[in-house]
Specification:
Blueprint lengths: L2 H14 L7 E7 L7 E2 H6 L7 H9 L3 E3 L2 E2 L5 E2 L4 E7 L16 E5 L3 E6 L16 H8 L24 E7 L2 H12 L4 E9 L6 E5 L1 E5 L2 E8 L9 E9 L3 E8 L6 H8 L22 H13 L5 E9 L6 E5 L4 H18 L1
Parallel strand pairs: 9-16
Antiparallel strand pairs: 1-6, 2-5, 3-4, 3-6, 7-8, 8-9, 10-15, 10-16, 11-14, 12-13, 14-15, 16-17
């Protein structure tokens, strides 16, 4: 296979699945005032390095390429002054072998087949645009030799699932091909036990419930996911939730996942009107419930400072061990920033009740 064929193959792989869906390159071009009418794919092939026409056409159909903030068809012709914006998955060159780095990680459990890590908030799981090193897998590559690759992605050794950069909590990493295949099958069949603790805005009328709504990328903002309540759009997603503590202004809830879609809890809870506290991407870094008084505003700002990331922690993880067949279960404590933020809200709420 020559270099051109290899590039086309990697282009095709980039769109087969949303392996790293929140890691995108952003391009913006403005057509020259003297621009002659030309198909958009031909126009962009002269603008974007190392991209094939097939990949561009696929991106157009996926809604990742827009003209004047509107979705277009692959045969769209560019006119003078058109503004073209593009969001494309990671370029193929980012899927490169990992450089081992001696970065401290919290190892909860390890045996010959797998490792359980308690990831701190702020650590990226694997390299992508803007994060070429310093990630969890860089640390894992230093700690463990010859980690296996899922679906051929050499930049994601050992990974069968992941959590967002600002989410803390438990991850399982496979140390060999058999373990990776076995765990991937459990994730596919939704038999993995996963519970998260989330701090969300507002209080609930019901104390528990289930949200069963498809999730997919927002066609108007490709950095966001959104709910598709009807039709065949998006992917099947189910989240079970229950209230653990109610502080009126915010609530601590437990979420159990049946599926593991991108931003699933964040988007499902936003759809219910309970955006995650301090979730900058989905508007949770604004005051969504409470008074307009300056003292309250200052209190909320202080709470944001105490936990300067969204309130989500992967609390527990359970699965069948690929080698022994035994049930494995792991639980983690809430990190200090999360507990400190909770304590602030408890004190504030108890004071307001008096």
């Amino acid at each position: 296979m020559d270099n051109e064929d290899e590039l086309k193959e990697k282009d095709a792989q980039a769109f087969k699945s949303e392996v790293a869906p929140n890691l995108y390159e952003h391009y913006k071009f403005v057509a020259d005032p003297k621009q002659k009418p030309v198909r958009i794919d031909l126009f962009l092939m002269d603008k974007v390095e190392k991209v094939t026409r097939n990949r561009l056409q696929r991106a157009i159909r996926e809604g990742a390429i827009r003209v004047n903030e509107e979705n277009i068809k692959p045969n769209h012709k560019i006119k003078p002054g058109d503004v073209i914006t593009i969001l494309l998955p990671d370029p193929p060159e980012l899927d490169a072998p990992i450089t081992p780095q001696n970065i401290p990680i919290d190892i909860v459990y390890e045996d010959e087949d797998l490792i359980i890590v308690n990831k701190e908030a702020g650590m990226v799981v694997h390299p992508g645009v803007g994060h070429k090193d310093g990630t969890l897998v860089n640390a894992l590559a230093y700690h463990i030799k010859n980690l296996p690759y899922k679906d051929g992605y050499v930049s994601r050794p050992g990974l069968v699932h992941r959590i967002d950069k600002e989410t803390s909590g438990l991850l399982v990493i496979a140390k060999n091909e058999h373990t990776m295949s076995h765990l991937a099958d459990q994730f596919f069949k939704h038999t993995i036990h996963r519970k998260y603790y989330a701090l969300v805005w507002g209080n609930f009328e019901e104390q528990s419930g289930t949200i069963d709504m498809n999730l997919g990328r927002d066609p108007y903002n490709r950095m966001h996911m959104r709910v598709f309540p009807e039709g065949d759009l998006g992917k099947y997603a189910v989240t079970h939730w229950k209230v653990l503590e109610d502080f009126y202004y915010v609530s601590l809830i437990e979420c159990q996942l049946e599926t593991g879609r991108t931003h699933q809890i964040r988007v499902h809870m936003k759809h219910l009107g309970h955006t995650l506290f301090n979730d900058k991407r989905y508007g949770g870094n604004q005051i969504l419930k409470g008074t307009i008084f300056s003292k309250y505003k200052q209190f909320v700002r202080n709470a944001f400072d105490v936990m300067p990331r969204h309130g989500l922690h992967a609390k527990s993880l359970g699965f069948i061990h690929p080698r022994t067949g035994k049930e494995m279960f792991f639980d983690s404590e809430l990190p200090e920033d999360f507990t400190n933020c909770l304590d602030k809200w408890k004190k504030y709420y108890n004071t307001r009740k008096k």
